[in-house]
Give the backbone structure.
Amino acid sequence: MRVLIIDDDKVDREDIKRVLQSQKGTVIDEAATAQEGLAALTNIKFDIVLLDYLLPDKDGLNVLSDIKKLNLTYPCGIILMSGNEEGELLEKALESGAQDFLVKHEISQQRLKRTIHLARKRFELEYHVRKSQERSKLAARMDNLTRLYNRTAFESSLEKMLSSDASYGEGAVIFLDVDNFKFFNECYGHEVGDGLLKQVAERIKQVIDKNDKIARIGSNEFAILLQSENVDSKKRRLLNRLLKALDAPFVFDDVEINCTFSIGSTCVGDKTSKKDVIKQANLALHKAKGESGYSVTEFDASLSAEIEKHRKIKEGLEYHLSQGEFNVVYQPIVRAVGETVSLEALVRWPTDSPFGHFRPDEFIAISEQNQTIDKLGEFVFKQAVETLAGLKKKGFNDIRVSVNFSPIQLNQWELCVKLVDICTNAGVLPSSVILEITETALLSNDFATKRMISELAAAGFTISLDDFGTGYSSISHLINFPINQVKMDRSVVPVSHEDDKRKNLLSSLVSMCKSIGAIVVVEGIEHQWQADFCHALGAEKQQGYLYSKPVSEKELYEVYLQPESEDCTLQRVAI
Ligand code: C2E
Ligand code: CA
Ligand code: CA
């Protein structure tokens, strides 16, 4: 047994030594000050420390707390000694980490032996309790599946990094997410799903430096925390290694999975809070997830605004749809002679919306993503058909209405039945309705889309191919689908008299469509010379600001639909 006596009183030390020396195999070290004692404790493993309460440089309670900070990793009992008995001191000593207390003048061989024995036992007990607490603390910071840190541990490491001084260099956070994990999990079973996460964790482990921290922070989301003098270049190198490591297929007994990952990253500036860093990395990841295939996005301030806008649109879509508050405006489509033959229904975000104001191309893209497009499309269709019914009641019998359809809407079960029902309820024939669909809807070439388009055409709706000239402009689509009308996109309309490129392109597109008997509409006509050019090409219909901007239903009645002739045709409107 090795014993350290820390006492400035030489006589007292000698007394204790005498008592102890009677015990065989006892090695005794002495220290006269707290400082000497603590120095000895850092170098030598003692079984027992006998610590005097009154030392010249510190009192015993302070020494106890210094010993605690040494975090001794072996059993070492500490006995505090004092000249007299004070109940309060005993309690404080035990609270500060001593295992027992002795009054100096009561020290006898018997008593000291027993106290040492008990102190060692107590220490061992405390030591084991502490160890098991540490183990459960560690378990609370670990992810069971991957043996990586979990979200709690990641957040506390990030907090530590943020509160430490900048001497370790700058920090950065990378969030990584397995694309379509839910699909793999459901398709191949949870065992493969778990295996995939384990393999991803292993591959990340292999490419990071030993000082970097990785954690699994969500079901299929990982986080890497790094710190370096030049964190940007370190991050770039790490991302390169990471993408290479994750590129190879993940192999299981009877299946091989190729997956892509979305990665978002941000720098841990010295002024950002933990919450901000996590939010920024999440925003970057969210943006990366919106792209297809492998995608890495670095956070910047504009992203924050973009995502905020995205969020407002999503919330606004849900809210205004539930309230039926979207507006529909109408833009006339005229025959070359100037007579309005149909009205294109275009949706508008409600005016005075508390969510802000957004353009249709902005909110329609989001509505397609969050599956509200079916509801929105149905709302616009119903409004358009009812507006048309109102016009017919006023005697405008020949006018038709065009409604835009997003490719996603065509996947709706019983869409055709639903549309026919709406028409029937409004007292309008499907033949008065034109459905504008973009060529992308035909690209998937799947059986269901094909069948739906044929079903709609068979029900009497006219199918118009929108935005022609921007995508594939494929003649086979015109031949293989029941398309009666093609709408040339405004990007192929010549912008000047000298714009020969567009003139030639538009001319060939128009003759291609006419060769298979489709009616041609040209949109985006803003000048009379463009109208004349399209007319000369043989395009039957035109649409654009030259004739009218989209207007509300009220304006339609007030301004544009005043019949100038007895036969109720709609006269060409000038702006
Ligand atoms: P689109 O179907 O190609 O509609 C034509 C767009 O061109 C409209 O923009 C219209 O206001 C604009 N436009 C018309 N004439 C001219 C012109 O002479 N010059 C110029 N510069 N522009 C002209 P808008 O209303 O902003 O709609 C944008 C797109 O949003 C539409 O493109 C369509 O793809 C989509 N969209 C609008 N309403 C709906 C809807 O109810 N359902 C679906 N699925 N999509 C819609
Ligand atoms: Ca359109
Ligand atoms: Ca268009």
User: Anything to note?
Assistant: The chain has a mean pLDDT of 89. Residues 40 and 561 are 101 Å apart (CA to CA).
